[in-house]
Amino acid sequence: IAWLYMLGASYFALGAIPAYVHAVGAAADAITFFVGSIFFTSASYLQLVQAQSPGMTDVDEQRQHTRVRALPWAWRPGDKNWLAAATQFPGTLLFNISTFAETAHNLTAAEADRHVWRPDIFGSILFLAASAFAISALGVGFRRLRFLPWYIAWINMLGSVAFMASALASFVLPKTDAMIDIPLANAATFLGAVCFLVAAALLLPAWRTSVRSKSRSGHPAG
Q1: Closest of 122, 116, 130 to residue 159, by C-alpha
Q2: What stretches of the chain show up as alpha helix (H) in DSSP?
């Protein structure tokens, strides 16, 4: 999951760099974003399966490699971790739609706003909601400042805010057929992608720390 998120974020960061766009062209840049969105969706679905499959997360060093049943579908609205994953997954699907539509050439302003901007803005809203659920699931308190998942959740929130800023700046004005603010859209996309990249990288040490702490405490799995 962490590596898929890092790959997706890397593609988004690369696609937002103006020098890359000038080097490869708009068509290849659009494909870069679409490929990145596929990595995001793959990671998000696996995270959803993990969140709704008992025994996949609460494990120690001995049981972390034990096979458990993966649930492709579940309904757990009372679990905030599940809510975060379940909210983010459709957001990634909307990014799939948005980035795929952007690979089309010669879209009118109305078509760009309908097929690219709208899925983008709704996906960004879902990412914000997912980040809020993830933060809520961790609780509050100064002790959380030493808790790695707390940093992961807030870095993801910063990334979601940046993606929302990018979506807002990407609206195509009907009168001019131009985006509201291309530099802001690129900068916000790059910032958001870097935030998601860092948060995904932190998942690896966070998982190792969690597994080791449960092993020391004798915490049962499941």
Answers
A1: 130
A2: 2-15, 18-24, 26-52, 80-101, 109-112, 118-138, 148-169, 182-217
**Residue 78 DSSP symbol:** T
Q: Judge whether 134 and 174 are in contact, CB under 8 Å.
A: no
Reference 50, options 11, 7, 81, 90; nearest CA is 81
As a whole number of angstroms, the distance between CA 104 and CA 80 comes to: 37
Which parts of the chain register pLDDT below 70?
Answer: 58-64, 140-146, 214-222
State CA 122 to chain mean position distance: 14
Q: Which two tokens stand for residue 74?
A: 């579940």
Q: What is the pLDDT of residues 134-180, one digit of tens each?
A: 999 987 654 555 688 999 999 999 999 999 999 999 999 988 888 99
What is residue 65's three-state secondary structure?
coil
Whether pTM > 0.85 for this model: the answer is yes
